[in-house]
Specification:
The complex is a heterodimer of chains A (162) and B (263). With 162 residues, chain A is mainly alpha-helical. Chain A contains seven helices and no strands. Chain A is elongated, with a radius of gyration of 20 Å. With 263 residues, chain B is mainly α. Chain B has 13 helices and three strands, in the order αααβββαααααααααα. In chain B, α2 packs across α8, α5 crosses α9 and α6 packs across α7. At the A-B interface, α5 and α6 of A face α1 and α9 of B.
Chain lengths: 162, 263
């Protein structure tokens, strides 16, 4: 598998660095919207990724990494909400130890996600790559891999088939 | 790249499963139910409430009645292992057909109920039902749900007599929700079975109450307003599966004589 060369900090414009940093700040979107719904973060990230789709690979890498790393956090948070509602409505307020364990795991996950996003934003602002565990490799592969020719010619205008 | 990424994904999942599993093993017993209050607080609240109820109600002091009641309750309590409370039964002079559980294992029985039931076994089942509410801590749950934990704590610390009287009225008059009733019924049927009392006596009593309730709007049937009675509850009791070798041992009390003590 072949990959494109990585951009170096001195080759990137200030605009690109700021766009890349912006991707990580999407997690504040929900706070900005004034609602504690984790799904808003995810939607904001998806929108951001598509807006930056035509931007350089450096920006695309960071927005994709921010997007993917948000998925498990959102799922775990939604799970916690579902479980809590279940206890409130159907389980007669009976809680279990695994429920508390899950809540603590959720808090740890959110804190870790928050910390990694801040570090990612700072690194991106300085024009540096920053690879999250697993997601870093996944996004590097998705963004920097050199695809087949067919993919690249899809943007070329072709005459109608006669 | 593929294996490296998968390995990292594995590490990531393992970390979070370990955090989840690890914290699940921690003992959360002390704050197991965030909506309940501690035993000390309950005892404190119960003391205030009992004081109020004792002035509001007329307690029947009759040795023969007390000992009859004790025969019934002893049968039940001796078959109840690891009881949460030290149960105290109070006999109230009131024509209403009712019994209710207050805090800290205090159970109040109205004289109207003694008149209404036809045997000691029936009363035993109703008391088992009330014990079921206490054992499952339904009273605390109901109070917290209706007035909120803050108000409860302010009552414990402040001891405002008006609030206490309101709280007591609330305990007597509001009903439990359907789930709680079912839980208490299940508990009562099981306890009756263990105590060699026929669990189907509960259905008999329910049916009798229902028939009476339908024939005339019996003002005194308070038991029905605080213990909503659905057909499923009657069915559960009447369909209670009894093994062939079930050996019913009726409580040896002449109920007519017990009723006579009331006068």
């Amino acid at each position: 598998m072949e990959y494109y060369d990585l951009e170096q900090p001195n080759e990137l414009s200030k605009k690109e660095k700021e766009d890349a940093m912006g991707a990580y700040l999407m997690m504040f979107a929900a706070i900005g919207a004034g609602l504690p719904l984790p799904i808003i973060n995810l939607i904001a990230s998806v929108v951001y990724f598509f807006v930056q789709k035509r931007n350089t690979r450096f920006v695309r890498f960071h927005s994709l990494q921010s997007l993917w790393s948000q998925v498990p956090t959102t799922l775990v948070n939604a799970g916690a909400m579902y479980w809590t509602l279940q206890i409130f409505l159907f389980d007669n307020l009976e809680t279990t130890d695994s429920y508390f364990g899950y809540l603590i795991m959720m808090v740890v996950l959110n804190l870790a996600y928050f910390a990694f996003s801040i570090v990612g934003a700072v690194k991106a602002r300085n024009g540096k790559m920053y690879y999250f565990l697993f997601f870093g490799k996944l996004c590097y592969h998705q963004v920097y891999q050199i695809r087949d020719e067919a993919d690249q010619t899809s943007d070329v205008n072709l005459p109608p088939k006669l | 790249m593929k294996w490296g990424a998968l390995k990292e994904l594995g590490i990531l999942i393992a970390i979070f499963l370990l955090v989840w599993g690890g914290f699940s093993y921690y003992d959360y017993e002390e704050f197991k139910n965030p909506f309940s209050i501690s035993a000390e607080n309950e005892a404190e609240l119960s003391k205030l409430m009992t004081e109020y109820l004792m002035t509001d109600f007329e307690v029947i002091q009759n040795r023969s009645l007390d000992s009859s009641l004790q025969i019934i309750t002893n049968r039940l309590l001796s078959n109840l292992d690891s009881a949460q409370y030290e149960y105290k039964f109070h006999l109230i002079d009131n024509p209403d057909v009712n019994a209710f559980t207050a805090l800290n294992g205090n159970i109040y029985i109205f004289s109207g109920l003694i008149e209404e039931v036809s045997s000691a076994d029936e009363l035993a089942l109703i008391l088992a039902h009330e014990i079921g509410h206490a054992e499952n801590r339904h009273v605390v749950e109901k109070l917290v749900k209706t007035i909120g934990i803050e108000v409860l704590f302010s009552i414990i610390t402040g001891g405002d007599p008006v609030l206490i009287s309101e709280l007591s009225k609330l305990t007597i008059s509001t009903s439990f929700d359907r789930l709680n009733e079912e839980e208490a019924d299940d508990f009562a049927l099981r306890l009756a079975f263990d105590s060699q009392i026929n669990p189907r006596r509960l259905a008999q009593f329910f049916l009798k109450m229902k028939a009476k309730h339908q024939s005339d709007l019996h003002e005194k049937l308070k038991f029905l307003s605080t213990h909503p009675l659905g057909n499923d509850r009657i069915k559960k009791s009447s369909d209670f599966l009894l093994p062939d070798d079930f050996n019913e041992k009726p409580i040896p009390l002449d109920w007519e004589m017990v009723k006579a003590y009331l006068d």
